[in-house]
Amino acid sequence: MQIAAPKILVVEDAYVTGQILRHGLEHEGFDVCVALNGTEALAALDAHRFDLVISDFQMPDINGDELCRRIRASERHGNVPIAFCTAKGYEFDTEAISSELDISEVFFKPFSVRAVSAFAHRVIHGSCAMAS
């Protein structure tokens, strides 16, 4: 019996960035769904269970902040680990947002896909080991 790969939802309005994350995470053995905005992300969350959500912070439609609030209010996904990716850099209050919304990690753009993959392994598998 084959065990299903952990499922990650990547929410990123920059198509190329979303595809780079998809490729890197799939290479590490994850099943990845990419949503281009918060509305698509909410639809994906309604349709599937995810082990991790990695979301851009600044997006049109529903931004990462609001998306996270909706996920946290969800009975189905309220406890899923969430990471933000942001270009806000110095403007982003990592401690406040992490505490308020129970964010597991914040990656500042440009970020390393390897660092995101290592984080995903750590959060989902409970170790720092990365698949080859």
Report on the architecture of this protein.
The protein is an alpha/beta fold. It has one domain: Rossmann fold (3-Layer(aba) Sandwich), CATH 3.40.50.2300. The protein is 41% helix and 18% strand. It is built from 5 helices and 5 strands, in the order βαβαβαβαβα. The chain has helices at residues 15-27, 38-47, 64-73, 94-101, 113-125; strands at residues 7-11, 31-35, 52-56, 82-86, 105-108. It has a 5-stranded parallel beta sheet, sandwiched between helices. α2 (38-47) runs parallel beside α3. The relative contact order is 0.17. Mean pLDDT is 89; it is low at 128-132.
Which CATH class?
Alpha Beta
Helical/strand content category: alpha/beta
Beta-strand share of residues: 15-25%
Span between termini: 22 Å
Order of adjacent strands in the largest pleated sheet: 2-1-3-4-5
The helix count comes to: 5
Radius of gyration: 14 Å
Under the CATH scheme, the architecture is 3-Layer(aba) Sandwich
General shape? globular
How many domains? The number is: 1
Major sheet: size, sense and barrel closure? 5 strands, parallel
